[in-house]
Specification:
- By secondary structure, the chain is an alpha/beta fold.
- The protein folds into 2 domains: 15-191, Rossmann fold; 202-422, CoaB-like (Rossmann fold, 3-Layer(aba) Sandwich), CATH 3.40.50.
- It is built from 15 helices and 20 strands.
- It has helices at residues 29-38, 49-54, 57-64, 83-90, 101-108, 115-122, 135-139, 141-150, 179-191, 227-238, 268-278, 306-314, 323-330, 348-358, 399-422; strands spanning 15-20, 42-47, 68-69, 93-99, 127-131, 156-158, 162-165, 171-175, 202-207, 212-215, 218-220, 242-247, 261-264, 284-287, 294-296, 317-319, 336-343, 362-367, 379-386, 391-398.
- The strands form 5 sheets. An 8-stranded mixed beta sheet has the order 13-12-9-14-17-18-19-20, with helices on both faces.
- Strand 19 and strand 20 form a beta hairpin.
- Helix 4 (83-90) packs across helix 6.
- The structure holds cytidine-5'-triphosphate.
- Cytidine-5'-triphosphate is lined by residues 287, 289, 291, 293, 320, 322-324, 339-342.
Length: 423
């Protein structure tokens, strides 16, 4: 059997300009630069004078395999062109992290008094902006004002800070987005862009496996890691949606959960209860969870011996109800629903039947028996089927790119309703 080429890392070969301003979160940047280089990105770093007091330019030069630039490098009689123009034009994408209150203010007011500030004004590349500061500074009215204004700039993806313990010993908002989240947002900027077409919509996503206990020591589950569903949730958040994520036990980078409203479940029954509560508020639902097919009719409270196990494997089980079909049945008019179908072999005909059986608007059928795609893999591929008979082949690509493709299709299902609501 012939397989398509495995998908390349979306960051490989991309020119990433890292602009670092003065917040203590700057100490996380050497690790992030190293991660970018390991994924094949080409990296250049710029430090403001305050950032240079917090993090070593020598470390950044070493890790990025390139000189790291400071204010004193901006003008040189040996350079044919000013450094801020060279860097601004070299960049394919800009990572502005951490973004301090003063660098945000300079940018919004068009000031160009540091190498970082002038490079930011000169670049035409998209910018991922990740602020970090003390929580009172973050709440200060001028900063709020600048942060809101940033959302109106073209080509900017603003990534709000997270909540937690800050270096000033306060608990609150102001921590720079986690490194794993920054890498994800950067990938999103490169694959989708900065447009917030899901603003004002609420997406409910389910992800990961369910786990149905057999006895206190064993369960029925599957190899789902939750990666596809969680990336779908993050892609929607980055496109402006309010996202609720209901997830089973996950095996992935916990940084990817940042900024999502999460509910964790273990069994299909818990998932069913969560859906009953959350369905009415959702504009759209993506049912990426790998729900177990069977569960015990009555839970076993004592651990079975190996001998008892054999007999219990074939008796005492009942089918789990079809949660997706139930969602379709009780949905309000206008709610869009995307289902998933994992298949092995040639699953297209069965996926078409499944779409009809379940009654959802879209079904993404993806293979789980091919190298580099499926459960836990970085990439995915498959067929996207629509209830009106249209179908699209999705070639192997990173799961975040697949997530964006699915969101665009789900958004298209919603668009006529949005239009009608506006009229
Ligand atoms: N699903 C669900 N409830 C179940 C089983 C599946 O809501 N009890 C959802 C999944 O989240 C997914 C879709 O239905 O979005 C298809 O899942 P799949 O396991 O392929 O479907 P099944 O109905 O279990 O069909 P099969 O007999 O092929 O396993």
């Amino acid at each position: 059997m012939l397989f398509a080429e495995p998908a390349a890392d979306p960051l490989a070969g991309r020119r990433v300009l890292v602009l670092i301003s003065g917040s203590i979160a700057a100490v996380k940047l050497p690790g992030l630069v190293s991660a970018l280089v390991q994924r094949g990105a080409l990296v250049r770093c710029v430090l403001t004078p305050s950032a240079a007091r917090l993090v070593s330019a020598v470390a950044l030069a070493s890790l990025s395999r390139h000189p790291c630039y400071l204010d004193e490098d901006q003008w040189s009689h040996q350079a044919a062109r000013p450094l801020h123009i060279e860097l601004a034009e070299w960049a394919e994408v800009v990572l502005l992290a951490p973004l301090s209150a003063s660098s945000l203010g300079r940018w919004l007011h068009g000031l160009a008094d540091t190498l970082l500030a002038s490079t930011l004004l000169a670049t035409e590349a998209p910018v991922l902006a990740a602020p970090a500061m003390n929580s009172a500074m973050w709440q200060a009215e001028p900063v709020r004002h600048n942060w809101q204004a940033l959302h109106r700039l073209e080509r900017v993806l603003p990534l709000p800070p997270a909540s937690g313990l800050l270096a000033c010993d306060r608990l609150g908002d102001g921590r720079m987005a986690a490194p794993g989240m920054l890498l994800l947002a950067l990938e999103s900027l490169l694959t989708w862009g900065w447009r917030r077409d899901w603003q004002g919509r609420r997406l409910l996503v389910t992800a990961g496996p369910t786990r149905e206990p057999l006895d206190p020591a064993r369960c029925l589950t599957n190899p789902s890691t939750g990666r596809m569903g969680v990336l779908l949730a993050q892609a929607a958040r980055l496109r402006g949606a309010e996202v609720e994520l209901v997830h089973g036990p996950l095996s992935l980078d916990r940084d990817w959960l940042e900024g999502l409203h999460c509910r964790s479940i273990t069994t299909a029954a818990e998932l069913e209860q969560a859906l009953a509560v959350l369905q009415p508020q959702a504009s759209a639902i993506a049912m990426a969870a790998a729900v177990a097919d069977h569960r015990r009719t009555a839970p076993l409270l004592d651990k079975l011996s190996k001998r008892e196990l054999e007999s219990q494997l074939s008796t005492g089980w009942q089918a789990v109800p079809d949660l997706l079909a139930a969602l379709v049945e009780r949905r309000a008019p206008g709610q869009a629903i995307l289902g998933f179908a994992a298949f092995s072999g040639d699953g297209l005909a069965e996926a078409q039947r499944k779409l009809q059986r379940k009654g959802c608007d879209l079904l993404f059928a993806n293979p789980i028996d091919r190298p580099g795609v499926g459960f836990g893999a970085a990439a995915n591929e498959g067929w996207l089927l629509a209830a009106d008979g249209r179908q699209w082949r999705l070639e192997p690509s990173g799961k975040l790119a697949v997530a964006h493709r699915l969101l665009t299709a789900l958004g298209d299902v919603l668009s006529p309703q949005d239009q009608a609501a506006r009229e």
